[in-house]
């Protein structure tokens, strides 16, 4: 049976590839896509989600724009990585996927209410929509099987020295989701930095020879130039699709159950995720945290998805 999934995202180049993987693989039943302000404004992230669903041939998946700012802090966007559109690189036309008139949080709520079984939420942007959902509709906790999150790190950060962007963008929301009682699995930078888009990966995608493969190469080439400029990476890490790959094949991701906290007050560490990997703090384990990625399994899934969708 396919896993019913709601994707909450902020496309973003890596979000775009996560959408393709979620649509392509038969193990995933993608029920809805909500977007949030993060890599770009919520209007642009919703447009980008519509673009990618159109390219994937999934025009029937509803897309709605959600929260346009964090719960507390001012909005910071990741345009220094993702560009003015949020998906700079290829030239996109107008999408043929409509924008659902509901607020993204209500789309998530309605999708959960209509499901006959608990639904997995894959959250690969700031967690504002999910925290807002649990505030507005606390009964929805029982309708969520798990929240799989691209966020945080057991090591260093990227947006700041110790904070990964998605958590930094709304740490109060991240802390509320972590403390909600809904099971969470966290895929942090320590994992996604193992999924580098090397020249070999780009060559494998390019060799597929389809228009979709060409667009993916253009997206990843722009993304790589941004990463090199900002952090000096020779190849960019493809963060977000790991969450979907884990649902398809849990063996992709080695995980440990630990006590996890979100830093809200540190002058230099706000937004950091603090994982008690060695049990030094006597915290009750409250989250699954990824540690090791099976790179071969991951890239086979990701490139296979581009191949399947590109061949129509």
Automatic annotation (TrEMBL):
It comes from the Bacteria. Transmembrane segments: none annotated. One of its GO terms (molecular function) is purine nucleosidase activity. It is an enzyme of class 3 (hydrolase). Coiled coil: none annotated. Its EC number is 3.2.-.-, 3.2.2.1. This is Purine nucleosidase/pyrimidine-specific ribonucleoside hydrolase. It comes from Streptosporangium brasiliense.
């Amino acid at each position: 049976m396919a896993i019913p999934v709601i994707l909450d995202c902020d496309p973003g180049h890596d979000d775009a590839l996560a959408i393709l993987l979620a649509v392509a693989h038969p193990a995933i039943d993608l029920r809805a896509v909500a977007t949030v302000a993060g890599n770009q404004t919520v209007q642009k992230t919703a447009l980008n989600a519509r673009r990618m669903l159109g390219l994937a041939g999934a025009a029937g998946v509803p897309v709605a724009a959600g929260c346009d700012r964090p719960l507390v802090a001012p909005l910071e966007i990741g345009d220094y990585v993702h560009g003015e559109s949020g998906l700079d690189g290829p030239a996109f036309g107008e999408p043929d996927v409509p924008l659902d008139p509901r607020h993204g949080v209500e789309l998530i709520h309605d999708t959960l209410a209509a499901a006959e079984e608990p639904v997995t939420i894959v959250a690969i942007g700031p967690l504002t929509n999910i925290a807002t959902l649990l505030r507005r509709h606390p009964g929805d906790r029982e309708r969520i099987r798990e929240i799989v999150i691209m966020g945080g790190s057991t090591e260093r950060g990227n947006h700041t020295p110790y904070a990964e962007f998605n958590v930094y963008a709304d740490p109060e929301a991240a802390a509320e989701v972590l403390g909600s009682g809904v099971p969470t699995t966290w895929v942090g930078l320590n994992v996604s930095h193992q999924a580098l888009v090397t020249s070999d990966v780009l060559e494998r995608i390019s060799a597929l020879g389809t228009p979709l493969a060409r667009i993916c190469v253009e997206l990843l080439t722009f993304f790589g130039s941004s990463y090199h400029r900002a952090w000096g990476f020779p190849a960019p890490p493809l963060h977000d699709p790991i969450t979907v790959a884990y649902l398809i094949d849990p063996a992709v991701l080695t995980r440990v159950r630990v006590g996890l906290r979100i830093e809200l007050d540190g002058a230099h560490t706000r937004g950091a995720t603090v994982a008690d990997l060695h049990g030094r703090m006597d915290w009750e384990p409250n989250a699954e945290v990824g540690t090791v990625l099976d790179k071969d399994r991951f890239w086979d899934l990701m490139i296979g998805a581009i191949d399947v969708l590109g061949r129509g």
